[in-house]
Design goal:
By secondary structure, this protein is an alpha+beta fold. The chain is 24% helix and 24% strand. Strands 3-5-1-13-10-11-12 form a seven-stranded mixed beta sheet, with helices on both faces. Strands 7, 8, 9, 14, 15 and 16 form a six-stranded mixed beta sheet that branches. Bound molecules: dioxothiomolybdenum(VI) ion. Dioxothiomolybdenum(VI) ion (MOS) binds next to loops.
Length: 769
């Protein structure tokens, strides 16, 4: 491969070999001298107060070092909620008093010499409670409803034109309500933290998407200077939004380690993961679409309800999405937050977009049928070059190309629009459905540092977290292309607050953020090399280097064309050159990420918790798009739905790594199938908490549930949003996928399922019973 063609290639995953060898260090893999192990104990009532707590039996277990409860835990400074202005995933701090805010919150932490002793002792802690009433479902009368526009002014009621008036006048109206359940991230890697104190400094190893936020929030809550905290997160076994803020398990590990004066490893058990950190809130969407008889949609009214907690208002911005996907001239959108007795919800892959577009894309399917218009055609007709909300042009929008290519490749023109009209040879019902999706283009400020060595290797440190998506691969490809080195000669450090600022990585902005920061530093390296060459009276035709040698006292490359980069270093007597780089999103001012600014040339890079902007930028608005095409089969008698074919075409701008982009896309579709057909966190108003808090009862697809999936990329650059042409990819894939599946199920069965996930009993009709 030529040295300049790494970007866009299908080159192997940068960390592929080490992952296969089991070498990457996840949070729980950190080893330390005199390690101890902590296991939490959780509350078993839906809400109330602890009236008695007996830890004597736990204390007697050999090896137990401490049992921390609200009676002896250090008091904390307040936690600032990340989705307000702070860095913590909730403002609620359990174990500061006898309050039980929700079932499953931690009420004690046992620390012991071994994991076994800690687990045994945790099982011996007993508690008595005074139980208070609680609410865990959206329609519980005891839940408090909050008008988001009043409570969170940054998310006002959205209005474009006259949504209500045009709806009243429309001859064709679809008015339907769609529901989505709570879901919990279930990464294979459990939440795990190793906390170590040394001379007043705190070192945290943890799988987080936001090492900078962990650092900020810990410093704030513990009352120590930020410089005394270092957070290291080289790998995560699945982020997906669960780890975008500092979570309470980290505080517990830090407090426990300080108390006993030894390192503490806290691996949160699966059941506690369901209650320790945030999750996808349950939501409900009333969608009203008004259309003329000729098939023109004149109005969309979207009233959303979303779950939040008693202690925080987690904003929900569904109307920010539904108003902007299509060229519909009249819109009104409201959001009601419903305070329930659970931990605070938060981001989970395409948090607002997935649930909103499930509702919108289902309603469009209902409207298409009413209008006798093909659902692909209905969407094509409502394409728009400008953002309805701001009136600004989209920097790029290739939704129509996604729809056209997808329809063509899927064979959509062979579809008989009548529901129930298609059968497989075995008698099962066949349905073809489609839906589209969008996800905002977001980018974050980032910092980087590159050191190029004379031996032809480079160390790259950059803002960013490896959440499983393979971000090291895009960093390596871009560094390789920029420096003229093969990717395997590039060592990458990310997620470490000591080497580069580590603001949150999420929102599908990882690639578009890390890549330009790396390029910025690489450009500086190239400039330095040119200076070295010029000082030696040599011209550098190319800064590519894969090999160098001396000939007649001069350094030449393999083709004798001139001195090469590391050869230059050798000749100049330098062992390395170093440069720092930075990146700001379009229009982003350094004042929006103030601590990045001095990073440019300073030795110690400062840190920021969060520094992202989008999708509206000066002069344009950016979104990624997708079109999904799905075939399902539903058993004629026992109406079990299965996805048998899925094709999705994506407009994510330019693809940097075909290898990792494809696997991101496949993962998003698997999750779409999961969301449509299996995944839900079950609540019971009698008990509170989440009942199916284990991988046996929290249903996710296995290999047998997943057919051959086909993903395709438009792969055309968006050069307004990013000099590299990149838009975001990870999350858009999940958006619309569930609606495409339920639309296909409708086409197969004539049954419209408006509440996710689909259960077999939803599809049982009189004739099939
Ligand atoms: Mo994401 S849900 O911002 O990791």
């Amino acid at each position: 491969m030529s040295a300049m063609a790494w970007i866009g290639s299908d080159h192997v995953r940068h960390d592929g070999t080490e992952k296969v060898r089991g070498e990457p260090i996840y949070g729980a893999d950190r080893t330390a001298e005199a390690m101890t192990y902590a296991v939490p104990v959780s509350a078993t009532v839906g809400r109330g107060r602890i009236t008695a707590l007996d830890t004597t039996a736990a204390q007697r277990v050999p090896g137990v070092l401490a049992v921390l409860t609200h009676e002896n835990l250090d008091r904390l400074h307040p936690a600032d909620f990340a989705y307000g202005v702070g860095s913590a995933s909730t403002s609620y701090q359990p174990m500061q008093d006898a309050v039980v805010a929700y079932r499953g919150q931690p009420i004690a932490l046992v620390v012991a010499e071994t994991l076994e002793a800690a687990a045994e002792a945790a099982g011996l802690v007993t508690a008595g409670y005074k139980v208070e009433p609680f609410a865990v479902t959206l329609d519980d009368p005891a839940a408090e409803s909050v008008d988001q526009a009043q409570a969170v002014p940054t998310f006002p009621v959205l209005e474009i034109g006259e949504g209500d008036r045009l709806l009243d006048q429309a001859p064709v109206v679809v008015d339907a309500t769609y529901g989505t359940p709570a879901q919990h991230h279930n990464g294979l890697e459990l939440l795990s933290t190793v906390a170590e104190w040394k001379d007043g400094s705190l070192l945290i190893h943890e799988g987080t998407q936001a090492a900078g936020r962990v650092r900020h929030a810990l410093a704030n809550q513990l009352g120590i200077p930020m410089e005394m905290v270092r957070a290291v997160a080289p790998y995560l076994g699945g982020g997906f939004g669960q780890r975008t803020g500092q979570t309470f398990n980290t505080v517990l590990a830090a407090l426990a380690a300080r108390r006993i004066g030894r390192p503490v490893k806290l691996i949160v058990p699966r059941a506690d993961v369901f209650h320790m950190v945030h999750f996808r809130p349950a939501s409900r969407h009333r969608i009203r679409l008004g259309a003329r008889d000729d098939g023109t949609i004149t109005s969309l009214v979207h009233d959303a309800h979303a779950q939040t907690s008693r202690h925080d208002l987690m904003p929900f911005w569904g109307p920010e999405v539904s108003s902007r996907m299509y060229g519909i001239p009249n819109f009104r959108g409201t959001t009601t937050l419903v305070r329930l007795d659970t931990q605070t919800p938060g981001y989970m892959r395409a948090p607002m977009e997935m649930v909103t577009m499930f509702a919108v894309e289902s309603a469009l399917d209902e409207l298409a049928e009413r209008l006798h218009v093909d659902p692909v055609e209905l969407r094509r007709r409502h394409d728009t070059a400008t953002d309805p909300l701001t009136g600004r042009p989209f920097s790029s929008r290739r939704l129509k190309q996604c729809l056209d290519r997808g329809a063509e490749r899927f064979g959509w023109s062979r579809r008989d629009p009548a529901a129930g009209s298609m059968r497989a040879d075995d008698g099962s019902l066949v349905g073809w459905g489609m839906a589209a999706g969008c996800y905002p283009g977001i980018a974050s400020a980032a910092g980087s540092r590159i050191r190029l060595h004379e031996n032809g290797t480079a160390d790259v440190a950059v803002s960013g977290h490896e959440m499983g998506q393979g971000i090291r691969t895009v960093i390596a490809l871009v560094a390789a292309e920029s420096l003229g080195l093969p990717p395997d000669r590039i060592r990458i450090t990310i997620g470490d607050t000591r080497v580069a600022p580590q603001p949150e990585t999420g929102g599908s902005w990882g690639t578009a953020t890390a890549v330009p920061a790396v390029r910025d530093a690489a450009n500086d390296i190239r400039a330095q090399l040119h200076q070295i060459a010029a000082a030696r009276g040599e011209s550098v035709a190319t800064v590519d280097v894969t090999e160098c040698r001396l000939a007649d006292g001069r350094l030449v490359g393999p083709d004798n064309s001139g001195p090469l980069m590391t050869g230059l270093l050798m000749a100049a007597g330098r062992s390395s050159v170093e440069a720092t780089g930075q990146y700001y999103a379009p229009g982003q001012q350094p004042s929006e990420a103030p601590t990045l600014a001095p990073a440019r040339k300073s030795a110690v890079m400062a840190d920021v918790g969060s520094a992202f902007v989008g999708p509206a930028f000066p002069g344009f608005v950016t979104w990624s798009y997708i079109a999904h095409f799905v075939e399902v089969r539903v058993g004629a008698r026992v109406r079990r739905p299965r996805v048998t074919r899925m094709l999705s075409v994506i407009d994510c701008g330019r693809v940097i790594s075909r290898r990792t982009a494809t696997s991101q896309a496949l993962g998003g579709l698997v999750w779409g199938i999961s969301t449509a057909l299996s995944e839900e966190s079950i609540v019971d108003p009698r008990y509170g908490g989440f009942l199916n808090s284990n991988l046996g009862d929290y249903k996710m697809p296995v290999n047998a549930d997943i057919p051959t999936l086909d993903v395709d990329f438009i792969d055309e650059p968006d050069t307004s949003f990013s000099a590299f042409g990149i838009k975001g990819l990870g999350e858009v894939v999940h958006v619309g996928a569930a609606a495409a599946i339920t639309n296909a199920i409708y086409h197969a069965t004539g049954v419209r399922v408006r509440d996710l996930p689909v259960h077999i009993e939803d599809l049982m009709t009189e004739t099939s019973r």
